[in-house]
Predict the structure.
Amino acid sequence: MSKEFKGKLFVFSAPSGSGKTTIVRHLLAKERFNLEFSISATSRAPRGEEVDGKDYYFISANEFKQKIKNDEFLEWEEVYRDNFYGTLKTEVERIWAQGKHVIFDIDVVGGLRIKKKFPEETLAVFVKPPSVDELKIRLKKRSTESEDKINMRIAKASVELATAPQFDKIIKNYDLPVALQEAEDLVDDFLGIEKEVKNE
C-alpha cells in the first residue's frame, strides 16, 4: 500500500460509561469498513486485564511530557494531575500505511481536536447516555473505581454533555441495538458504501 493513502478518521467521544467502547468494538468487527483502532498513549498504570500496545501505550508521565515537547502528539490532555492521555501522530500513520481507516474511542476534548486538525477526513460522533443518573449506575456496575473517582467522572460528564452540539452527529445510546445500527449507517454514509453492499 503506498504512503499516499489517506484514510478517514472516525471519532467516537462520550462521557465514561456511555457505551462508546461497545459501539467502537461493534464497528471494528465489520469487515466492510476496513477500520483499525487507534491506540491512545497514557501515563496512567494499566487497569485489570489491560495490555500495553493493545489497549493503550503505557508510558511514564516524564516520557509523555518529553513527547509533548517533541510535538509527537495529534492531541493530548492532562485529565488529572500527571495523568495524561493522547494520540501519537505515528499511530495514525501506522494505520494509514496499512490502507485502513482510523477509529478513535476518545474523550470529548481529544475528539474535537482531531476534527479540527482533519476537518474533511473526520466524522466526529458524540454518544449520549440516557441520563447522568443512568451513567452513574453504569459506572458503579463496572466496580473498577472508587466512589470519589466515579463522582469526578460524573462531574466531568456534565461538562462533556454540553459539547455534544460541536460534533457532526449525536447517537443517543438509550437502546443499544438501535445505537449500533445508527453507528453503522453513519460510517456507511461517510465512506460512501452503497446499501446493497452492506449485507454482504
